[in-house]
Amino acid sequence: MSGTFSSVPQVDYSRLNDPSTRGDELAKLREAIFVVGFLYLTNTGLEDLIRRTHDEIPRLFDLSDETKEQCNMIHSPSFLGYTRLGAETTAAKTDIREQYDFGTPGMKEWTNQDPFWQRLEGPNQYPDSPGAQALVEEYIAKIDELAQRFVHLVAESLALPADTFDDFKGNMSRLKFVKYPRSAPNSQGVGPHKDSAGLFTFLSQDNTGGLQVLNKNGEWIDVPPIEGSLVVNIQQGFEAITGGVCAATTHRVIAPTSRTRYSIPYFLGVRLDLTLKELQESAAHIVQRIPASDDRKKRAVDVPSEFLSPLYSCFGEAHLRNRILSHPDVGRRWYPELYAKYSQQVLK
């Protein structure tokens, strides 16, 4: 097993579910999880849904500004809804993209008796466009079913019981429709980062390109589109749960120069009430059982992320900080005191 990578591997979902090919494909999945932190998941059975969704997305962004502003994220303490171009930051730099954020439907309405971070789970705002809500809810339902199955397969590839990570799953996961307009060369679509919202990301990208991942040699590796596939990557939640043995990989999007780029990421969420103590205890237990080299486990002493910061009572608070700083206009409106506090904090 090599220590770095020069391309992102492909894992065939249909072979993972075929008893005759399952063992070989689980080995490929394990290699991708240990070495790269990214993989293409092919033959998922969702190809038609992915195609239909990509066909619809441009129309949602072509809606009038007035229509899009009606569901602007500024109206949502849950950070759900439309974000206009240039309103989100990554690595303290403005991203050149606009997007819609949606969450798992049917969340309980927040009350004053609930923890403040529980407001992250809230109702969706849908664009006023025929069929938009139905498409979003269909996509979330089907991608979540696949995501749950995928996490079980990851556990099996690590020689763990399939349900090892079930207790970490959150109530709400998040779906985005993202548009990257044509920009000047080397503009930031999304700056270098690790996904921080949960366990795994399941990304469908169009045929434009621009996604890159950083290998251990400090080289940016292109992740060119493969039609119908999903690009799956480890998030910081899974990195923390596995004590850093299964590490999240830094990635970015270079803004397109000749055509608009559309993408559909789905972020499988972690439960918001997960505490640092519980996380560390679980991670220690899980790491002992993962058949990784002792050297890999020794290197996984710490995971520098919000998940392992003693500044926060639980993941819900840590994730709320992330949202507030990424969407400062929403943060200032709904959480002014927390915005002032988090703006001055340095992660420990």
Automatic annotation (TrEMBL):
UniProt GO molecular function: dioxygenase activity; metal ion binding
Keywords: Dioxygenase, Iron, Metal-binding, Oxidoreductase
Domain Fe2OG dioxygenase: start-end pairs: 170-270
Superkingdom, natural source: Eukaryota
Family: Belongs to the iron/ascorbate-dependent oxidoreductase family.
GO biological process: small molecule biosynthetic process
Protein name (record): Oxoglutarate/iron-dependent dioxygenase
Keyword Metal-binding found: yes
InterPro entries per record: DIOX_N, IPNS-like_FE2OG_OXY, IPNS-like_sf, Iron_ascorbate_oxido_reductase, Oxoglu/Fe-dep_dioxygenase_dom
Region described as Disordered: spans on this chain: 1-20
